[in-house]
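Task card 7
Instruction: Convert sequence to structure tokens.
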Amino acid sequence: MLSITCQTAIKAITYIASKYPENKKVGLKEIAIHINESEHTIGKVLQKLSKLSLISSHKGPKGGFFISKTQHNLPLLLIVKAIEGDSYFEMCGLGLSKCSDKHPCPIHKDFKPVRESFRKFCAKMTIGDLYSDLNVGNAFLIG
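Output:
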């Protein structure tokens, strides 16, 4: 399960990416309204993503967050790893520090393929893929 911080990052970047076809920059307040999160939380998450060049930003009156053509094609995997850490897709489903094929937890054999399937999904899904259903009204960022 993704952390709340990672969920927030994905929702925020999806909203930012949804403005890519219009070549529009969006501010924290606008993002906060459209994903129902606090500006403070979003600001911290987006600062991290910006430092890693997963999104772009400009300061000033005509500034805001946006994605470039290169960022549009980046995999979701990079966002998850940026927030959750590189070892996220190797973690035990029960949180054990020593879980492996030789020393499995009770759910290891069933959880391992699910974890790998999610990793493959995140590697295939791009930032650009995230917003296509959103922009035509077939997906939502708040419930």
